Automatic annotation (TrEMBL):
UniProt protein name: MFS transporter
Main location: membrane
Organism: Streptacidiphilus cavernicola
NCBIfam families, alphabetized: efflux_EmrB
Pfam families: MFS_1 (PF07690)
Taxonomic classification: Bacteria, Bacillati, Actinomycetota, Actinomycetes, Kitasatosporales
Length: 528
């Protein structure tokens, strides 16, 4: 008979293995966050290698966030039924296989499909982490575990762009996906050996109709917004997609009203504080992070920075957020939570508006003040946002509320990429058409917004090179100016919504704050 001791979970008798479950969960979290920020700095090289359009670039970034947003609520409910350990293992396997497919992708369509599969795996992992940590640790160890987990998330946000730039520079963009394979393998091994199995429990019939209608709504909305950049707002494809989104949203509301076990209890929307904080979560990601995709294209395609240099330029946002978030309890511990959240969002907006200083003659230093200011705002707004939202709902709806807020954060990023990308492409198109005097202004504008500015410059005769060089810089400045105006205004509006809607409550309970799942964005939020 085998009498070997059970090593499925840590105990005080086995201190050496106590933190292995935390390591397994942190590896998965790190992989998720690094992967998104890695993609951001590799976009121009992907566009050149795969000969992809601007719309394809948007989908490479957006598909992941969109699938996450669509699946978070329903996958969280599945975790309660099947067990969070099983769901986490499933997510690791799917994410690893999808990363392999991304790295081997022969064209943009395959890459986009593989990114969608990554989103499925990411949703399964993301919804499991909090429950797994809660089950693995108690008392002071639990607080330590969540603190380390949050620090790893913040570190990933800062390391991601630099690591992505390094891999892209020294190997190629495919390496940013292949690096996930050994990380996933290590996390998988430790999870199987050391994470406690939870059997799950039946919690009523799963709301399949709600899951389907919400997925159709979010997918159709983002699809219509992204395709409008290429096909125009009057296109039957765009109008049909947006109409489908409206119908699906109405269907979702009807389904949730009639469901005995809804994904979203619409009664929560009568709580103005919860609505304000959920709107803030959605708008924060759109304001603070979505514009970085187009900033990175400008840095590499127009200013000819390398991927690692572009990653370093964007780091001040993550680093400022990390420093401020780490001192949030000391700085804002006595304030009602809506104060740091609302003022942080306003700072995010102000910082992005500062980035409108970018002009045709600007260097990369023009965006630094805005990145730092918006990073300070992120560090103020994000640490307490989830726990503040959960404090506004009944205890029996805390899990649902957490899923709604996290869904809002991911959907906000997806919508931000779609809306700002359309604005960016259309503004460049208009500028080139009016000022360029080129034989094919539409083709040139498409190449510019798709990250192929150097190809445009190389294709013109020598006597026109100087004029086209000026046109490239000026058109990008015009496109970014419009992007920053909209993103900055969004941040300020979000802050005002929080200050107006969220009722004044007790000072933020930082020590007891319920941790939130990490935000998967181009520059993920460093604190939770």
């Amino acid at each position: 008979m085998n009498t070997a001791p059970d090593t499925s979970s840590p105990t005080p008798d086995r201190p050496r293995g106590k933190w292995i479950p935390l390591t397994a969960i942190c590896l998965g979290t790190f992989m998720l966050l690094v992967d998104v920020s890695i993609v951001n700095v590799a976009l121009p090289q992907m566009a050149s290698d795969l000969h992809s359009s601007f719309t394809s670039l948007q989908w490479v970034v957006d598909m992941y966030a969109l699938v996450l947003a669509a699946l978070l609520m329903v996958v969280g409910a599945l975790g309660d039924r099947l067990g969070h350990r099983k769901l986490y293992l499933f997510g690791l396997v799917v994410f690893a296989l999808a990363s392999l497919a991304c790295g081997l992708a022969p064209n943009a369509g395959t890459l986009i499909a593989a990114r969608a599969a990554q989103g499925v795996g990411g949703a399964a992992m993301l919804t499991s982490t909090t429950s797994l940590l809660n089950a693995a640790y108690q008392g002071r160890d639990r607080g330590t575990a969540f603190g380390i987990w949050g620090a790893v998330s913040g570190g990933a946000a800062a390391v991601g762009p630099v690591l992505g730039g390094l891999l892209t520079d020294e190997i190629n963009w495919r390496a940013i996906f292949f690096v996930n394979l050994p990380i996933a393998a290590a996390a998988l091994y430790m999870t199987v050996r050391h994470l406690k199995d939870d059997r799950g429990r039946p919690t009523g019939r799963l709301d399949y109709a709600g899951a389907v209608t919400f997925t159709v709504f979010s997918g159709a909305l983002v699809y219509g917004l992204i395709e409008s950049a290429d096909k125009g707002w009057g296109s039957s494809t765009v109008l049909g997609s947006l109409a489908l989104a409206v119908v699906a949203l109405l269907a979702f509301a009807l389904v949730e009203l009639r469901s005995g076990n809804p994904l979203l209890d619409l009664g929560l929307l009568r709580n103005r504080s919860f609505v304000g904080l959920t709107a803030a979560a959605l708008l924060l990601n759109a304001a603070a992070f979505a514009h970085l995709t187009y900033t990175s294209i400008w840095l590499q395609s127009v200013l000819a920075l390398s991927p690692i240099q572009a990653g370093l330029v964007c780091c001040p946002l993550a680093l400022a957020a990390f420093v401020v978030a780490g001192n949030s309890a000391r700085l804002f511990g006595r304030a009602a939570p809506q104060i740091p959240i609302g003022l942080g969002l306003i700072l995010i907006g102000a910082g992005v508006l500062l980035m409108t200083l970018v002009s045709a003659g600007s260097s990369w230093t023009a965006v630094l003040p805005g990145l730092i200011v918006s990073g300070v705002g992120v560090g103020m707004a994000t640490p307490i946002m989830m726990s503040a939202a959960l404090a506004t709902v009944p205890r029996e709806r805390v899990g649902m509320a957490s899923g709604v807020v996290n869904t809002g954060r991911q959907l906000g990023y997806a919508l931000g990429i779609a809306v700002l990308g359309t604005v960016f492409a259309n503004r460049i198109q208009d500028y080139v058409t009016v000022n360029g005097h080129l034989a094919d202004p539409h083709g040139a504008a498409s190449a510019l917004s798709g990250g192929r500015a150097q190809a445009v410059l190389a294709s013109v005769p020598a006597d026109k090179a100087a004029a086209v060089h000026q046109l490239v810089h000026a058109s990008f400045a015009a496109g970014l100016d419009r992007v920053y105006l909209i993103a900055g205004g969004t941040g300020i509006v979000a802050g005002l919504i929080v200050l107006a809607l969220v009722r004044r409550g007790e000072p933020a309970s930082w020590e007891r704050a319920a941790p939130a799942e990490p935000v998967v964005t181009a520059e993920a939020s460093p604190a939770h």
